[in-house]
Design a protein that fits this description.
CATH topology of chain B: Peroxisomal Thiolase, Chain A, domain 1
CATH architecture of chain B: 3-Layer(aba) Sandwich
Radius of gyration of chain B: 19 Å
Structural class of chain B: alpha/beta
Order of helices and strands of chain B: EHEHEHEHEHHHHEEEEEHHHHEE
Distance between the termini of chain B: 16 Å
Largest sheet of chain B: 9 strands, mixed
Oligomer: heterodimer
Number of strands of chain A: 9
Helix content of chain A: under 10%
Number of domains of chain B: 1
Number of strands of chain B: 12
Radius of gyration of chain A: 16 Å
Number of domains of chain A: 1
Strand order of the largest sheet of chain B: 3-2-4-8-1-9-12-11-10
Strand content of chain A: 35-45%
Shape of chain A: globular
Strand order of the largest sheet of chain A: 7-6-5-8-9
CATH superfamily of chain B: Thiolase/Chalcone synthase
Distance between the termini of chain A: 31 Å
Shape of chain B: globular
CATH class of chain B: Alpha Beta
Strand content of chain B: 15-25%
Helix content of chain B: 25-40%
Largest sheet of chain A: 5 strands, antiparallel
Largest interface: A-B, 39 and 41 residues
Order of helices and strands of chain A: EHEEEEEEEE
């Protein structure tokens, strides 16, 4: 089956709290919540910063660069829309290496993935007939966008 | 001695239903079977039960995740309570048992029946695990996971890979939990999978999410487990040793989502070591360990967090299997755990620990066992630890 024949991936339910993370990829931008009081990122998005209790978190545009903290090749087939095998990872974000995102690694074979390798963001569009399309942040090997 | 709630109670009775991969029996009937056995084991009549507690109540985030809520048992057994509760928002699965202990110690009830019931085997049906329903839109926690095809096993696999990188854990070390659990399951007629498992079998098994294979994952089944928590004075009325509760730790820690945690190699049991501040016993005094193994790696976190070894050393601790086998220094999961015994979701560990300290684990008894450490829960969804001893 070619990629075009696959049913669409499940979309995240986009809401006021998470919309920038899921939709900014339309412009090729990775944005993540940031707490200016504590000078760190907050992810997944929150209403208050869990460390500083600052309730004025803002969305910050990042470089899209990060490093692989851990990875796994999913071999078991779970969802018809996501054909196995595929590679998932925790990627730490270079602007704040204490913050990680759960994501997929693309454009790389599992045998070539290493903990610590530099990666940069890319996006996969998941169409939504009822609202803005979702752009899932994914990562691919490389230093700079 | 310091006044502690856990010293005012005992676990007076335990009961288990029939356990099977897919029994096709009504889960309420299975639950009643476990509950009636626990009440009888406690030397009580149903009319003596005046409190009820259960996890997760009637909330069911996945197929078969709960077999009987609070009302199901209360109505079908005809119980009148002076205290009751059922819910998922607590310190992991055994939070309901802790609540029952607090209720009895506080005088709200004399005998609280607590149960955990599942029918995931039947509910997921044949043809492989279907714990993840396919929907167009994922909300809440799954919104961060399902769009990528991430499920619990992949999140556990990310923990394993991080442990390999940071602590030098190997698959050959990780194998020993599953292998020893299977060896123990062979001594437990109630266990789901009882055929021996060799290191070669483990290493050649199909991968689910690298570096985790089939045998690193627990087995969905149909089963119910129940315990009765009574006032400590009830111990003298029993025809078997009561199980005293030496110390308890109930932990919620860190952010709920795995990716929000401080350290991907650890889970909320990282705060469980505080349990030793509530007892004069030390890890070396523990005769038996019942540690949550929904995925094999979780036992490593528990071994470290309860102080049986240093953080990062669990792989070496279990390597070769002798130490955690029956007859070893710290026999672990003699019922087969959830990896081979079946996914009783935490309550199987408590049940087996009670049998061990009572000296009633027929065919797999740890010789002279007086004390047990129980650690239940995983990831950052809340954990409860208990140190039990023969009363």
């Amino acid at each position: 089956m070619s990629a075009a024949d696959l049913p669409p991936r499940p979309r995240p339910a986009v809401n006021e709290r998470n919309a920038p993370y899921w939709t900014s990829g339309a412009d090729g931008r990775l944005v993540v919540q940031r707490c200016d009081a504590g000078d760190h990122l907050v992810h997944p998005p929150a209403l208050l910063c869990p460390r500083d209790h600052n309730d004025e978190l803002r969305w910050a545009e990042l470089s899209g660069r990060g490093h692989v903290e851990s990875w796994t090749e999913v071999v078991h087939q779970w969802l018809p829309s996501v054909p196995a095998p595929y590679v998932l990872a925790f990627v730490t974000l270079d602007e704040d290496p204490t913050t990680r995102v759960l994501t997929a690694l693309v454009g790389v074979e599992a045998d070539d993935v290493e903990v610590g390798m530099p990666v940069r963001v890319c996006f996969e569009r998941v169409p939504d007939e009822d609202g803005p399309d979702v752009y899932l942040p994914m990562f691919t090997p490389g230093e700079a966008p | 001695m310091t006044d502690r709630f856990e010293h005012k109670v005992v676990i007076s009775g335990v009961g288990q239903s029939e356990i099977g991969r897919r029994l096709g029996r009504d889960p309420v009937v299975l639950t009643a079977e476990a509950c009636l056995r626990a009440i009888a084991d406690a030397g009580l009549a149903v009319t003596d039960i005046d409190g009820l507690a259960t996890y997760p109540g009637s909330t069911s985030p996945g197929p078969g995740f709960t077999g009987a809520g609070l009302r199901d048992v209360q109505m079908h057994l005809g119980i009148t309570t002076t205290w009751c509760e059922g819910g998922i928002e607590t310190s992991g699965q055994l939070g309901a048992v802790v609540n029952a202990m607090l209720a009895v110690a506080g005088g709200a009830a004399n005998h609280v029946l607590v149960w955990r019931s599942l029918w995931e085997g039947s509910a997921q049906g044949t043809g492989g695990r279907k714990a993840y329903s396919v929907t167009d839109v994922a909300d809440g926690l799954p919104a961060w996971q399902l769009p990528y095809g991430a499920t619990a096993v992949s999140l556990a696999a990310l923990m394993v890979r991080a442990r390999m990188h940071r602590y030098g854990l190997t698959r050959e070390q990780l194998a020993w939990g599953p292998i020893v659990s299977r060896r123990h399951a062979g001594m437990n007629p109630s266990a789901v999978y009882r055929d021996p498992l060799s290191l070669e079998d483990y290493l050649s098994a199909r991968m689910i999410s690298t570096p985790m294979c089939l045998y690193d994952c627990d087995v969905p089944c149909d089963a119910a487990t129940a315990v009765v928590v009574s006032r400590a004075e009830h111990a003298s009325d029993l025809d078997h040793p009561a199980v005293a509760v030496e110390a308890i730790s109930s932990t919620l820690d860190d952010r709920y989502q795995w990716e929000g945690g401080r350290d991907v190699t650890r889970m909320s049991s990282s705060a469980a070591g505080e349990i030793w501040e509530r007892t004069d016993l030390r890890p070396a005094d523990i005769d038996y360990a019942a540690l949550y193994d929904g995925f094999s790696v979780f036992t490593h976190c528990w071994l470290e967090d309860l102080g049986f070894c240093e953080v990062g050393d669990a792989g070496a601790f279990v390597e070769g299997g002798e130490r955690i086998s029956l007859g070893g220094e710290l026999p672990m999961n003699t019922d087969g755990g959830q990896l081979s015994g079946g996914r009783l979701h935490g309550y199987g560990f408590l049940h087996e620990a009670c049998l061990q300290v009572r000296g009633e684990a027929t065919g797999r008894q740890v010789e002279g066992a007086q004390t047990a450490a129980v650690g239940v829960g995983a990831s950052n969804s809340g954990t409860t630890a208990m140190i039990l001893r023969r009363a």
